[in-house]
Amino acid sequence: MLTSYLLQASHHRGLQVQNHRGDWVDCPPIDGTFVVAIGQGLEAMTQGVCQSTTHRVLSPARGSGARYSVPFFQGVSYDATFESMDVPAHVKALREEVIRRNGIRQDDIEFTFSKGRWGHLGEATLMNRIKSHPDVGERWYPALLQKIREEQARNDQVAEEPQGLLKEKPEVSSTPVTAH
């Protein structure tokens, strides 16, 4: 996915995004607006300059009614091949400065969407969905899920960290924090 656009059509809270520290931040509905999220495909194309949005949705409190949202996902043809954008050196330098200042967010974007890993965007998208939903992968794509897990284990063992920064997985809490 390149980007997504979400209309939160009811008053219920539930959408949260994760900041660089690993805190979950509420994204309350605001009338007349869309939530715009960067996808992993766009992050890979821009070599990490545009970072994908780690997010989750919490169920509404029992008895408070249904939560409605209307998503639109923007992607490219599944048979498209990978091409990276030419990102100017000064923009990459700004990205590195932000990483140094705020800490690094490491995840599996390079694994699922890196150029040359899969033949087409459709393959990368399928692998990403299986990785994100292992219960579904276990039932319908067990061989592919096993392949993904083996590849992740290899990547974890030999990963080289950019600019000598340590790979840190932030501790995640289910306690919402206020956006700033």
Question: Quick summary of this structure?
Answer:
The protein is an alpha+beta fold. The protein has helices at residues 40-45, 89-102, 109-113, 121-132, 134-140, 142-158, and strands at residues 3-8, 15-18, 24-26, 35-38, 55-57, 69-74.
Explain this structure to me?
- Keywords: Iron, Metal-binding.
- It holds the Pfam family 2OG-FeII_Oxy.
- Residues 4-74 form the Isopenicillin N synthase-like Fe(2+) 2OG dioxygenase domain.
- With 180 residues, this protein is α+β, with helices and mostly antiparallel strands.
- The protein has one domain (3-164).
- 34% of the residues lie in helices and 14% in strands.
- The chain has six helices and six strands, in the order ββββαββααααα.
- The strands form two sheets. It has a three-stranded antiparallel β-sheet with strand order 4-1-6. Strands 3-2-5 form a three-stranded antiparallel β-sheet, with no helix packed on it.
- α4 (121-132) crosses α5.
- The chain starts with a strand and ends in a 22-residue tail after the last helix.
- Residues 163-167 have low confidence and may be disordered.
Features:
single chain; 180 residues; alpha+beta; 3-stranded antiparallel β-sheet; 6 helices
Lay out the secondary structure.
Elements: E1 3-8, E2 15-18, E3 24-26, E4 35-38, H1 40-45, E5 55-57, E6 69-74, H2 89-102, H3 109-113, H4 121-132, H5 134-140, H6 142-158
Antiparallel strand pairs: 1-4, 1-6, 2-3, 2-5
Helix pairs in contact: 4-5, 5-6
